[in-house]
Structures are given as C-alpha cells and as structure tokens.
TrEMBL record:
GO BP terms, alphabetized: regulation of DNA-templated transcription; RNA methylation
Region (Disordered) location: 1-22
The UniProt record lists the keyword Cell wall biogenesis/degradation: no
Name of the featured protein: rRNA cytosine-C5-methyltransferase
Keywords from the named record: Methyltransferase, RNA-binding, S-adenosyl-L-methionine, Transferase
Protein family per UniProt: Belongs to the class I-like SAM-binding methyltransferase superfamily. RsmB/NOP family.
Amino acid sequence: MTTPPPARNRRAPRPYRRPKKDAARMVAFEALRAVDERDAYANLVLPALLREAERKSGLDRRDAALATELVYGALRLQGTYDAVIAACVDRPLREVDPPVLDVLVLGAHQLLGTRIPSHAAVSATVELARVVLGDGRAKFVNAVLRRIAARDLDAWLDEVAPPYDQDPEDHLAIVHSHPRWVVSALWDSLGRWQPDASGRSGVEELLAADNARPEVTLVARPGRSTAAELRDALPEEATEPGLWSPYAVRLAEGGDPGELDAVRENRAGVQDEGSQLVATALAAAPLDGPDRLWLDGCAGPGGKAALLAALAAQRGAALVASEKQPHRARLVARALDGNPGPYTVIAADGTRPAWRPGSFDRVLVDVPCSGLGALRRRPEARWRRRPDDLAAFGPLQRGLLRTALDAARPGGVVGYATCSPHLAETRAVVDDVLRGRTDAEWIDARPLLPDLPGLGEGPDVQLWPHLHGTDAMYLALLRRTA
C-alpha cells in the first residue's frame, strides 16, 4: 500500500497591518489632487499643506523639501511619466482613476527622477496607495511600479518617444514633458526671436530650462533697500548678485526670503528678474515733456507696481496702480504699503478706464496671458492651457493696449508686457493695435537693457529662461505721438 505524501504545512495568514502614513508623500499627494480637482496652483496650495503637516505631524525641513521635490517634479515631468505609465498598464490612461494616476506619477518620479533607491521608492509609494486608495488598488500600483523600476529613464525614453527624425515635435514633447502644441509654439517663437537658435539644440535648451528648478530672486526696492543690504543680511554663500538687474539678489537653494528684515518690512520682495527688467526699462525710456504721473494698468498682484512706485518716488512722480479684481487690488495695496512717494491703488477695469485720456507720462500694461513664459514656476499651466485659450486672451490684450495708449499723453511712453513668448500674445498684438492708429510709434527697447545677449533685431524684446535665466517676459515700448 502506497504511503500518502505528508500534508503540506500551511502558513497561517499574515495579520492585517495598518498602513503607515508618510507625511511628506501625503502632502505631495494632496497637492496633486488639489491641482487636478480644483485647478489650484502648486505654488499657492503647497505652502499651506506644508504648514498644516508641520503643525499636525511635526513635518521637518527635510521632509518638506522632499514633498516639494515630489510635487514639482511630478508636475514638470508628468508628460514623460504618463508615457511610461501608459506602456506599463493594460488600459488607456483616461480609464485610470485620477487619484491612482497621481500616486503612479509620484512613484514614477521617485524611480526615474530622484536618487531614492528603487525598493524604497516602490515600498513607500505602495504604502501611500494603501492609505489613500485602499489595499486593492495598491496592488495595481505595486505591479505598475515594479514594471517601471525595471528600466532607467533613458531606456524608457528610447521605447516611448518616437525617433526625432520621424516626428521631432512628438519626440521633444515626450522627452521634455511639454504638450506637443506648446513645443510647436515655443519652437516657432524661438525661431522668430533667435533665428540662430531655432533648431533642435535651441528649443531643447528652452524646454530643459522650463523643467529646471528656478532660483528665488529678490528685488531691493530703490530708496528703501539695496541689493548690498540684502546680501549682507545673509551668509555669503547663500546669495549671488542678480544677472542683469541692479536691484536683484539670487538666493541659494533653500534660502528663505522671510528671514530678511527688508522683506518682512516690505522694503524688498520676491520678484523674477525678467519682471524687474520690464519695470526698469519702462522707467528708463526717453520721455518728451514732464515726468510726474505713472500708471500700472494691470497691477495685480503688485510686484511691478511696487518697483515702479519706488522708482517714481525717486523722481518726485506719483503712481496710480489699477487692478480689476478687488482681492488682487488689495494685494497691490499691501505690496505698495510703506512706499515713500505718493501712490493710489484703485480697483478698475483697464478696458473701461477710470481716468481721463492723456493723463499719464508713463503707462505699463502687463496683460493677462497664457503664462507660457513662466512654466518653470507654474509647471501645471502647461497641462491646463489649450490652444483655444490664446484666442480668448487676444481681444482683452488688444483692448488693454489700446486704452493704455489712450491713457498716455502725447510724448508719453507705454510699455506692453506679457509673461509669454507666444507670437499670438506678443508682436501680433502690438502690430494689430498699431495698424489701426496713427498716434503711436515704436521705441527700441534693446538699449534700455544693456549687456543682455540675444535680444534679436528689435525694437521689442523677448527674454528667455535658457538665455537670460529669467521668465520668458516680452516687452514692447511705444511712444504716444500727437
């Protein structure tokens, strides 16, 4: 008689283990959900989430830095990570629940965009999935992340991005994580302004600059503080002088502007150097006649208005700062608080002026736009904007420039600025407005920005992140004629 095999020892089921909350990754997940669900901007929602986590769970500076890297890394490289994730799932991404996709993108960034060891990245992200998605969907996350972890980023790009010579725009869109239409628009604009950099290398440098972490730049408001004062207030290794603006100071990574007395006292502020250059160029433009009253016609949230007010005060001139939205007008008033010279803040629609025509010697309109020039600061904007948005902005931009020209007296100067390099929001707007008028002429803005390379043929100016280290600000200067 055959002896039956011995019975197998069955392992007792493991007791259920409650998932552990990782404060940094929880903050990152909550920030991405706010961006997705409420169209929030990460630079506005993340600080509040970090403060709450510090209060509730004792989040320290190191964990806060990790959460910040995860949020901005995931948003900047979302297009690349979506392509990789799509190659690892058995369904279209549109059929993956958005919270699951947010967790997967956070995991993909840890695996492909940071130095976190693969096993730690997978383990921590699956634990996050257990907390926010439940054990069932956490298993799906685990399977996908293990497939992603099998290759590095270069190997994945070789698989998911088409060859450059086959489809250059789609290749760049996936490799540099921009929507294809944005790649096309930036390439066209770069070719217009920088013909020698319009090929692959130029646009790749621009797209890569959009994905680089931007420096924090301070502005010393003239007459109230100086760049030297700001630098002296911090350790020598913590600051560098600005690249172009005499009022700029660049902070080292991790520097906190709130530590400076001048910032707390409103004598200095945080402002990209491109915005500083727009204000200083308008203030330096040659003027025929008196120089007593200036207008910032789209003043919110107040950075340029504060710099203009300080410059105007040094000449005995006054500033009127106008902003359509009352809550943004309050931000302008806060930014101008303490300015030594006369100023007025009003809530008014720049297309329906609250002032008489011909009232001002200098006028600035930094018009609402797509924000494609500040993608390194607001990376989510690249996924939120659509080509149709430019058509919606166009009439407003033209209307604001027309009323700005009307507001300037004969001999006065108007600056048209926008944080976008898109041709439809820059030269096309100015050309269209001037085509219907005989009372305005171009001023060459390039001599007012000395030492800046790559300003093209003029007379207007386009700044670039990869060439100038600034946001992609555009500036056209016009003189009102009789």
